[in-house]
Amino acid sequence: MTLVTRTFVATLCAALATLASAAAPPPPAPDPVAILGAAKAASGGSAWNDLKTQHSKVTLSTGGLTGPVERWSEFSTGRSFLTYSLGPTSGAAGFDGNAGWTQDAAGESRGESARAARELAVNAGYRDQLAFWFPARHPATIVYKDREHRDDADFDVVSITPAGGREFDLWINADTHLIERLVEREASETRTEYYMDFRAVHGLRLPFRVRATRGDPRYDEVVTVDAIDFDAPSKPVNFARPAPPAPDYTFPAGKSEVQLPITLANGHIYVEVRLAGKGPFLMLLDSGGANVLFPQTVQALGLKSAGAIAATGVGDAKSDAGLTRVPSLDLGGIVLANQVFVTLPLDAQFRRIEGMDHVAGLVGYELFKRFPTRIDYVQKRIVFYQPGQWTYRGGGVKVPIQFRDHIPEVEGSIDGVPGVFDIDTGSRSSLTLTAPFAETNKLADKYHATAEVISGAGVGGPARARLARGALLKLGGVDVPGPVTLLSTASSGALADPALAGNVGYGVLHRFNLVFDYRNEAMWFEKNALFDDKDVHDRAGVWVERGKSGIEIVDVLSGGPAAQAGIKSGDLIRSVDGKPVAGLTLDALRTRLKAAPGTKVKLTLASGRAVTLTLRDLV
Q1: Pairwise CA distance, residues 315 & 346, whole Å
Q2: Structure confidence by residue, pLDDT tens digits, 172-187
């Protein structure tokens, strides 16, 4: 939603004239600068020259939710500011001329400091400056790309790459001489905006309806203009990132920190919370995850969910997500008031993949952004500190973090190849490299990675990757030797983002005690007693889940111990080492299948057949 409204001024363009083609030899490409000049003339000409500011009020509709958006922008600087209200949530976003920022429903603001976010903010600022007509305001590379015929119309496509930004395309209808589309790559998806219902305003021709899509019409965003004016007298607009709001939480009286036990299972961290005075509820802790509730929890709390917005993750699929508000969230006496939660139907997934049927949802980012936080994987505890009463005094290595949406990222490298890596306490893996990063750097060849495995599952469903082992992962000034490395094969979702190198999860993170300070964009890595342990992948060559009839073999690695023992996908396990699986958790089984090389694990299948696996390293 934010990107649509932040790029709205890009719609204030009109026609492009095209150059006639000759027979032969091939004609030179049309001059894109001349085309843009014609566009300016057709949409208002000199009427644009002296304009200084733009103010609009629009209605945004998406995912079954509708609400108002109000936006201000400056043509000379590209600075912008908007506010929105959509169902149970609201917020603001802006660009101060140098960097973009967002503000959530609680009034907390965040600088969008990741590279991709910076590039998209520069693009939006470039369009707000109308710099394709006034190049002195912001330099860019402008080229004529192609002539396209779509929807019974001919379009000239002009490609623009602003300095400090990324490429985007303007599609111009050759007959109407109006810019009717904008195409821009976001993270793992491409956003296309369609401009319609052009009307005369102040001597200009402007679209009064914009539809943005990322391919699935269920999640399209439609903007309808209610009012728009230029250079209207008004009080000065503050485009700077807002100061922190008054706390929306209470800390236990007389305490400067709160310690809570954590449960570690399947490479995930779980904490107990109370919601709306009820509970306790067990919730997964995800450093970059929004507040999430599963449907049975929403029902138990007597709440209702609104909307059906798109939720994506590491897999290819999307899931409908609603929104609701919870009156209070309590962690060991820290009480957060009136919290917005995304509602997602992940109950069945957690029962199947985690083997846990009593998980209520996820928490993470909303806690970390408010409180400096320490995770102790050895002592199995988490500590939240009172803001303003805490200073880091440990001996860990400080690493700067930046944010892509709500996900913390660090700059680093894997075996000398630099990139940006998500820090993800909600990931069970060690190091998962995105498909574009792996392909661009030919890492499958470098690591001789041919075996393909299921690497995990999330909001987007199951994910697959090629199995490898890196020699040295660097995260800022931290060295991590020998991480199990998964080369994603995803074609969509988070692991298809070309701006991201990879995702760092439990297999790496649990070798440290971690301290996060989101407000000051820093974290510390403290080596713990687990640091020198070898990073281990499953040594049986299987992916197991809990099905309706017991523990099921979902995937078998060709040539692995399970395949050599004759195990096939779909087989059900009745007992492990003589013990019925009814009393065995998935976490315990997966741990058993990571035992030392040479360990023999005896399985009895539902067919009655008994097999023995001899475990060995697969990478």
Answers
A1: 14
A2: 999 888 899 999 999 7
Q: Rounded to whole angstroms, how far apart are CA atoms 461 and 465?
A: 14
Do the Cβ atoms of 39 and 179 come closer than 8 Å? yes
586 in helix, strand or coil?
A: helix
The residues facing 467 across adjacent strands are 486
Residues 521, 523, 528: CA angle, nearest 5 degrees: 175
Do 577 and 602 meet the contact criterion of CB atoms below 8 Å apart? yes
CA–CA distances in Å: residue 55 to residues 74, 124, 128, 180, 242: 9, 16, 12, 21, 20
Residue 332 identity: G
Nearest Cα residue to 493 out of 507, 503, 483:
503
For the chain, which ranges sit under pLDDT 70?
1-26, 308-319, 457-461
The H or E element that residue 296 is part of is helix 295-300
3-state secondary structure 533-576: CCCCCCCCCEEEEEECCEEEEEEECCCCHHHHCCCCCCCEEEEE
3-state secondary structure of 148: strand
CB 543 within 8 A of CB 552: no
Q: The whole model's pTM is what? A: 0.86
Tokens for 41?
């003339």
**Rounded Cα–Cα distance for residues 129 and 52 (Å):** 10
pLDDT digits (tens, 9 = 90+) for 378-434: 999 999 999 988 999 999 999 999 998 889 999 999 999 999 999 999 999 999 999
Question: What is the C-alpha to C-alpha distance for residues 467 and 537, in angstroms, rounded to an integer?
Answer: 9
Burial 337-364 (b: 16+ CB within 10 A, else e): eebbbbbbebbebbbbbbbbeebbbbbb
19 DSSP assignment? P
The torsion angles phi and psi of 5, rounded to 5 degrees, stand at -75, -35
* Cβ contact 470:421 at 8 Å: no
- Exposure on the CB side of residue 195, measured as CA atoms within 13 A: 28
Please provide residue 98's backbone torsions phi and psi, each rounded to the nearest 5 degrees: -125, -35
Write out the DSSP string of 106-125. Answer: TS-EEE--SHHHHHHHHHHH
Only one residue has tokens 């998209």, namely 120
Among 221, 190, 286, which Cα is nearest to 503's?
A: 286
Q: What is the pLDDT of residue 25?
A: 62
CA atoms within a 13 Å half-sphere pointing along the CA-CB vector of 145: 17
Task: Give the C-alpha separation, 85 to 110, whole Å.
Answer: 18
Residue 61, classified by CB atoms within 10 Å of its CB into exposed (0-12), middle (13-18) or buried (19+), is middle
Whether the Cβ atoms of residue 308 and residue 321 lie closer than 8 Å to each other: yes
In whole angstroms, give the CA distance from residue 334 to residue 373.
13
CB 434 within 8 A of CB 558: no
Report the number of secondary-structure helices (H) and strands (E) in the chain: 11, 44
Which residue(s) pair with 213 in the sheet? Answer: 192
* Partners of residue 322 on adjacent β-strands: 343
Distances (CA, A) of 484 to 79, 361, 613: 44, 28, 22
125, 78 contact by CB (below 8 A):
yes
Tokens of 445: 């060849």
- Contact between 175 and 153 under an 8 Å Cβ cutoff? The reply is yes
DSSP 366: H
Q: What is the dihedral of CA 418, 407, 214, 312, to 10 degrees?
A: 110
Q: Are 81 and 236 in contact (CB under 8 A)?
A: no
